[in-house]
């Protein structure tokens, strides 16, 4: 229940953050009216607006698949929140294979995007869905390989176990390459700029989501922001010590706030990149994954393995 | 019936119905989506028998990778968009092969496990799976990885465009295409 509640509120916080951060980076104010103080209720207003919109299903669309797709995209991200530890005892489920479960579950949302793109019966949607599938498959590999190096160092797959293993130092100091690969691959998995080729608005309107309106479209947006929270949370657990605080003053503040702070900081970083980098071209994007990131991740695993054996 | 058995029956019914729907539906994309449900239900069966690691491997490999590739290649080639259908005329033969496989499997499973007592389940941790894999089965594991490597190299060889065999086939549309792409790269 708490997990579901968190899933429904945190993405709205990130959405508001994106509005404001992007606006200020572009020397604008962003939402200022809704709710009074600096437009804090903008996302609530957006939600109400989405509910009021007409729910259109195109005549040529495959209505069942079209309707199911938003749920297939969103549910995996809700399921991830079940295993993320927000404190030493604050988690819904401590799975023995935590990180593996997370990586397996995220792979499902690709099917949702393909369903959305195909069922829309629209060439832009189909092109967007195919781009999304190609990108998500390509960047899933570095994502998994980067996590493998961390798992090897921690000696456990459990997310709580990985957080506990970083009691003395965070893994960003021992796995900086892994952290870089993981963040880049997560950006691509979320199809966020600079990896937003699948929804490139100047070429293919809005990719697989072009035909969606109202609540169904809101589901996709929720999945995107939920995805930012989820990937930030996983990156915090894997590389930034999760709920572990910094030495000396770490014990003064509860783990929940450390974890939330790290998630917020990473989400800010992800939004920051959107305001900074232009979109990659499709072939550059694929080449970067297969030629640069995957060999780098494999080398990272090898070095981690050698060091682990030598230190032992 | 225990809770486990009831869960198994529910999962088996869903999986079985979607498997039948997969082969009977006229739309290839629908068939692939029913395949997703069937494979996910196989994963759920693994969960029911407490093989957690295997269950998520099933989801990651089959649902996350193989079906996605299947859907991807279908949509890239000849999947009809929207409500159009695509069908072939192999029904009789397909039914025959399907029945044959079913009979064979039923006989094999009955033959191997029919008389034996029910096995008591115990939760296998990932640690145990890892230890078993890398202590007891390390050679088969390595042999499989060599096999996969060979398949990988084979796929690269097949997919390579600029092989000398291409020029032997005489002039084709590739040559101007390549020049064009080089020009854009500059």
Topology:
The complex is a heterodimer of chains A (312) and B (186).
Chain A: H1 2-25, H2 42-52, H3 63-81, H4 98-106, H5 109-119, H6 123-154, H7 159-165, H8 171-174, H9 176-189, H10 201-204, H11 214-239, H12 255-276, H13 282-311
Chain B: H1 3-24, H2 28-48, H3 52-76, H4 91-113, H5 126-136, H6 138-159, H7 164-168, H8 174-185
Write up what this structure looks like.
The complex is a heterodimer of chains A (312) and B (186). Chain A is mostly helical. Chain A is 68% helix and 0% strand. Chain B is mainly α. Chain B is built from 8 helices and no strands. Chain B is globular, with a radius of gyration of 23 Å. The chains are: A mainly alpha (312), B mainly alpha (186). Chain A binds chain B through residues 60-62, 65, 95-97, 100-101, 103-108, 110-111, 114-115, 117-119, 121, 126, 129-130, 133-134, 136-137, 140, 157, and chain B through 27, 29-30, 33, 36, 52-53, 56-57, 59-60, 63-65, 67-69, 71-72, 75-76, 79, 81-83, 125-126.
CATH H level of the domain at 1-80 in chain B: which superfamily?
Answer: NADH-ubiquinone/plastoquinone oxidoreductase chain 6, subunit NuoJ
Shape of chain B: globular
Helix content of chain B: over 70%
Low-pLDDT ranges of chain A: none
The total beta strand count of chain B reads: 0
- Overall geometry of chain A comes to globular
Order of helices and strands of chain B: HHHHHHHH
Question: What's the quick description here?
Answer:
Chain A is an all-alpha fold. In chain A, 68% of the residues lie in helices and 0% in strands. Chain B is globular and about 50 Å long.
List keywords for this structure.
heterodimer, A: 312 residues, mainly alpha, 0% strand, globular, B: 186 residues, Four Helix Bundle (Hemerythrin (Met), subunit A), 8 helices, 76% helix, disordered C terminus
């Amino acid at each position: 229940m708490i997990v579901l509640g968190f899933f429904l509120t945190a993405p709205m916080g990130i959405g508001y953050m994106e509005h404001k951060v992007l606006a200020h980076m572009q020397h604008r104010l962003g939402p200022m009216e809704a709710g009074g103080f600096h437009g804090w209720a903008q996302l609530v207003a957006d939600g109400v607006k989405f509910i009021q919109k007409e729910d259109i299903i195109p005549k040529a669309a495959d209505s069942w698949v079209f309707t199911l797709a938003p749920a297939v995209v969103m549910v995996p991200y809700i399921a991830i929140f079940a295993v993320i530890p927000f404190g030493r005892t604050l988690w819904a489920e401590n799975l023995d294979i935590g990180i593996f479960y997370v990586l397996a579950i995220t792979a499902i949302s690709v099917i949702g995007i393909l369903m959305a793109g195909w069922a829309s019966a629209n060439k832009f949607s189909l092109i967007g869905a195919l781009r999304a599938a190609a990108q998500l498959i390509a960047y899933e590999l570095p994502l998994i390989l980067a996590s493998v190096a961390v798992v090897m160092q921690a000696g456990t797959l459990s997310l709580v176990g990985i957080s506990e293993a970083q009691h003395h130092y965070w893994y960003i100091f021992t796995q900086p390459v892994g952290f870089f690969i993981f963040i880049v691959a997560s950006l691509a998995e979320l199809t966020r700029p600079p990896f937003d080729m699948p929804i490139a608005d100047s070429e293919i309107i809005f990719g697989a989501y072009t035909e969606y309106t109202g609540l169904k479209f809101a589901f996709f947006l929720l999945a995107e922001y939920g995805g930012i929270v989820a990937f930030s949370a996983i990156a915090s657990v894997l590389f930034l010590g999760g709920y572990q605080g910094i030495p000396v003053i770490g014990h003064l503040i509860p783990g929940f706030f450390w974890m939330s702070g790290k998630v917020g900081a990473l989400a800010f970083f992800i939004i920051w990149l959107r305001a900074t980098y232009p979109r990659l071209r499709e072939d550059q994007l694929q080449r970067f994954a297969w030629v640069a990131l995957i060999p780098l991740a494999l080398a990272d695993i090898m070095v981690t393995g050698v060091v682990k054996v030598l230190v032992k | 019936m225990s809770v486990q058995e009831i869960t198994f029956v529910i999962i088996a019914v869903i999986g079985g119905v979607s498997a039948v729907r997969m082969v009977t539906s006229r739309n290839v994309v629908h068939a692939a989506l029913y395949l997703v449900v069937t494979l996910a239900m196989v994963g759920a069966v693994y969960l029911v028998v407490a093989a957690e690691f295997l269950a998520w491997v099933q989801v990651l490999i089959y649902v996350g990778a193989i079906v996605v590739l299947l859907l991807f290649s279908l949509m890239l080639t000849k999947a009809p968009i929207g409500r159009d259908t695509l069908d072939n005329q192999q029904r009789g033969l397909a039914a025959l092969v399907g029945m044959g496989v079913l009979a064979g499997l039923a006989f094999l499973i009955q033959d191997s496990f029919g008389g034996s007592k029910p096995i008591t389940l115990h939760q296998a941790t990932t640690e145990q799976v890892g230890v078993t894999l890398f202590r007891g089965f390390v050679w088969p594991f390595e042999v499989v990885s060599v096999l996969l490597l060979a398949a990988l190299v084979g796929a690269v060889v097949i997919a390579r465009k600029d092989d000398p065999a291409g020029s032997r086939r005489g002039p084709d549309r590739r040559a101007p295409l390549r020049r064009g792409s080089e020009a854009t790269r500059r």
